[in-house]
Write a structure and sequence with these properties.
Helix content is 32%, strand content 22%. By secondary structure, the chain is of the alpha/beta class.
């Protein structure tokens, strides 16, 4: 698509003055951007002043200032709002404040420490705002809404009350560059919209739902995100889609009070599979726990990520090969960065030939993901004995009891702790 050479009016008195980056193919390492991205900044003109909402990545500052100068003079700017402080939003801020020193900067309370770390301006002054605070531009009122962890702690949204324009920051945005700008004019960006949600917003699903409860009653007539198309056609449908994406994907047919335990395994010669079956059998003896058993041998990660997001406990079984757990286990564990898993219960088990490091390595990774690992994993050399399978059943039963809260309190001796520490080392 051709580049947009000028500022673009998105509503009376409000212009897009951002920048286009169509050649970008990767964003923040973790996101692929087949269609590039936009850095959306906006200029709002009121009867008593001009506000700038967000800036752009420093490398694209020239485009930003060129478009800004088409719709406002620097001495007219009285307000600068940063809805989010990541460098792709704040990159041009130092130069903007140099050119418009009279402008007052507005940020969220949680943005203060980040501002000092990201924007190296001596004696930088700013105003802290929270939900309900507002600033007047005469016939335009900017009202602020705190939406933390979407996807940084500092994020907020800003509304022009009189026009129903919501500057949403990263929420409802996507990496999709098209110079036609508006959702009813650009190419089909549905994949980019949902891909962005899955990789940026999904780990903060609880905060997404909180934000929706705050923003949906506003019934905005236009949503102007920090990346991607401006949503002027059916803007509230994008809020509805976010609610669908953030809602639980799976329904527990066994009842709301039933806990869910998933047992994943991969097995070279069937030994770890025997252990997985024993773990599941042990867990099934505890009433109120629904147990599911999955072989990782020929399955992709995504369906399991969806399952794990809704589960209460997860157990991983892996043989030790070349002193490590096997790749499908690591692939699934690495995929868990897409969802919130903290405070779930985790466990590990597996067969080995010589050293058996896989169990401790998996447990360390689970703890690193902030899962609780309340029961020590079980290892079996080659073919598990009946005694070792009994330990697996006990592992499953204890894990299930932790899930239901029916675990017996026990006193652990210092000798036991030292022994466990030595085994872990």
């Amino acid at each position: 698509m051709t580049r947009a050479p000028d500022a673009v009016e998105i509503a009376p008195g409000t212009h897009w003055i951002g920048a286009l980056d169509p050649a970008l193919r990767e964003f923040d390492i973790i996101l692929k951007t087949a269609n590039g991205t936009t850095y959306n900044s906006y200029c709002v003109r009121g009867s008593d002043g001009v506000a700038i909402i967000d800036t752009v990545k420093a490398a694209h500052a020239d485009e930003f200032f060129k478009r800004l100068e088409q719709v406002a003079r620097y001495d007219e700017i009285s307000v600068i709002v940063l809805n989010h402080l990541e460098p792709d939003h704040s990159g041009a801020l130092p130069e903007l404040m140099r050119r418009a020193p009279q402008a007052k900067l507005y940020i969220s309370a949680k943005a203060q420490l980040m501002l000092k770390a990201l924007v190296r301006v001596a004696n930088l002054e700013y105003n802290v705002v929270q939900t309900g605070d507002h600033v007047s531009l005469g016939d335009r009122t900017l009202r602020f809404f705190s939406t933390p962890f979407l996807h940084w702690p500092d994020t907020q949204c800003t509304l022009i009350e009189e026009q129903g324009i919501l500057f949403s920051g990263d929420v409802f945005g996507c990496h999709f560059c098209d110079a036609r700008l508006f959702n009813d004019k650009v190419g089909d960006f549905r994949f980019s919209f949902e891909y962005y949600y899955q990789h940026i917003m999904r780990p903060f699903r609880e905060y997404v739902l909180e934000a929706l409860s705050l923003l949906e009653p506003l019934e905005p007539k236009l949503i102007a995100p920090a990346h991607g198309p401006i949503l002027r056609d059916a803007p509230q449908s994008y809020m509805q889609r976010y609610r669908q994406l953030a809602a639980p994907l799976l329904h527990n047919e066994a009842g709301a009070n039933t806990k869910s335990l998933l047992v994943f395994y991969i097995s070279s010669y069937g030994n770890t599979a025997l252990m997985a079956q024993a773990v599941a059998e042990g867990a099934e003896t505890e009433e109120g726990v629904r147990v599911s058993l999955y072989d990782l041998q020929s399955s992709g990660d995504l369906p399991f990520v969806d399952l794990i997001e809704e589960a209460d406990g997860i157990a991983f079984g892996s043989p030790t090969i070349n002193g490590d757990a096997v790749k499908p286990v690591w692939d699934l564990l690495s995929s868990l960065a897409l969802i919130k898993v903290s405070d779930k219960l985790g466990a590990a088990f597996g067969s080995y030939g010589w050293s058996g490091e896989a169990i401790n390595m998996i447990e360390d990774r689970l703890r690193g993901l902030k899962l609780r690992v309340p029961v020590k994993g079980v290892r079996a050399r080659l073919i598990p004995t009946e005694e070792e399978l009994g330990k697996c059943r006990d592992l499953g039963k204890q894990l299930a009891q932790h899930l239901t809260g029916n675990i017996e309190r026990r006193v652990i001796s210092m000798t036991d702790l030292l022994t466990q520490e030595q085994a872990h080392a």
